[in-house]
Structure formats: structure tokens, C-alpha cells
Amino acid sequence: MHLKPKHLTIAMTLATAPWLLTGCGGGSSAVATPPSTTVPTPQLAGRAVLAAASFADGPVSGQYLGGSLFNGHTAPFAKQPIQGFSAILKNADGSFLAMPDNGYGGIENSADFNLRVYTIRPNFKTATGGDGSIKAEKFIELKDPNKLIPFAITNQFSKERVLTGADFDIESMQRAPDGTLWFGDEFGPFLLHTDANGVLLEAPIKLMDNENAGQEIRSPQNPYSEEGSAVRIMNAVRAHAQSFGAKRAPVFSPYFVQLKYDANGVKSSPDAHYARGKIRNRASPRPPARFLMWRRSRALAIRW
């Protein structure tokens, strides 16, 4: 789990170098030496701070942290934490794009941390003014509404398919000349390519192993490994059950994954662990019962 800092500090520095190192080609060697002028020490020109307890609108987050205490705040959090930036890009208007990573450090505990890029604007405190604050103005969420990702994600069955920290662990971000965004992920590892609004433009790009021709690099959390695939399926089924009012997580066995339910007091089996709570209004039409089952990588969905 990542330990979050108590605050984010962005600093401006002013420094000048009166000389540059130069190299010589053609096989000859040379050592660049500085002139007698002393290089000035970098000086702090401005400073701005974003408090750790900074949150943005969104679903409850941190439900899978076990009620731990972080810098005086107990999880879960009523909104989405902003902090935990791993990459920052400067915008032309003086604001910055700031990208948090996957949230809480693991695929098992970050399924309710939405992957976002925030636009933040620092008001640098300098010798001539400024209050040293940082304002989070807006954000985009990474999402896959066009179903380009070929493996299970947490919001697999939703319309927007917002990506979470259990799907990818993004650690780097670059902006292309056309305005699209590229992200480096550690769980695959993959490269992710989105438009300026965070919508995925193509399937996650695998990274090939240059030392082993024809093979790709895979981390322990890779979705094509047995363990990585199982955790993703469990996250997807749990999120789907919760969208129908589930209060408990579905129960899984080593050989099949089955969503059990309790609709209008009718049990799916005598020993069922219920993924859906009782529907109190028995006069209303009975909603369709849903089973989701995976067996040996084959999926079966049954409704009635």
C-alpha cells in the first residue's frame, strides 16, 4: 500500500548555468571544464501546497482498506481522494494535469478508486505575493465505453466502464501533439491510449520482451495469468452485484464462480451466501434473477 504524503508541494526554482558540457565525436576523448565563473545555487522562487485531505465528487472509496487510519482519516472515504500523484504535465495557461496512480497500491484494495487526471492550478507563494494554495478545478476519468479491453474490469457490466485502480496501475503520463494521452501501466504492463477526455482509443498495448523473441513482459498482476484473471472476475461480479443493492460480496470456489442471490425472500439455494438483499416491496414485479458462472475460462450467463 502506498503511504500518502501529508501534502503535495509544487515548487518553482530559478537557476542558470553559464556553461554546458560538450562532447567530441570521432573516437577522440575530451573533458569539458567549466569556466572560472561560479555556478549560482538554485533558488526557490515559489511554493504551493495541496493538503492530503483533498477529495473530489465520486463514489465512496477505500472500502477495502479494512477501516485503517491514514494521516488522521479513517477509510472508507465519502468521496474520491485527489492525492497520490505520479505524473504532472504543464498546460499553456499555467495550470497542470495531475495524474494519481492506482489509489491504494494493490489490485485487491483499489477497485473503488477511479482512475482520473485532475486539472490543478497552483497560486504560487512568491516574494511578491500569492497564497501558496492549489485548486483542483476539474477532472477526467479514464473509461472504456467502447469495450476495447479484452479482459474483465471492475465496471465490466456498466455503460461507461470507468477504469479503477484494480484494473490498471498507471504510473506515467504523456501528452501527444494531437492532444491524446498516453499512460504507462504496471499491472500488465501495458500502454494505454486515450483521447483528451479519457476515453480509451485502442486496446491496451502489450510490451514485448526484447530478450525473448515473441514473448511479452508480464507482471504478477497480468490479466492473462491465472491469478490476475481470477481477481478481476471477482471484482467485476462484486461490482455488478453491488449495482443491484448487494450488501455482501459473492462467494467463489476454486472451480467455478457463481453469483448467488436472495430476491423477495426466495433463496437460490439453502446454503446460499447472498449477493443481493431482500426486496421489501413484495407487490412489485420480481426482478430477473441473475447467475454469472465462469468455468475453465468459459462464461455462462443465465436470466429468468
UniProtKB/TrEMBL annotation:
InterPro entries: Phytase-like_dom. This is Esterase-like activity of phytase family protein. It comes from the Bacteria. Residues 80-211 form the Phytase-like domain. Signal peptide: none annotated. It comes from Chitinibacter mangrovi.
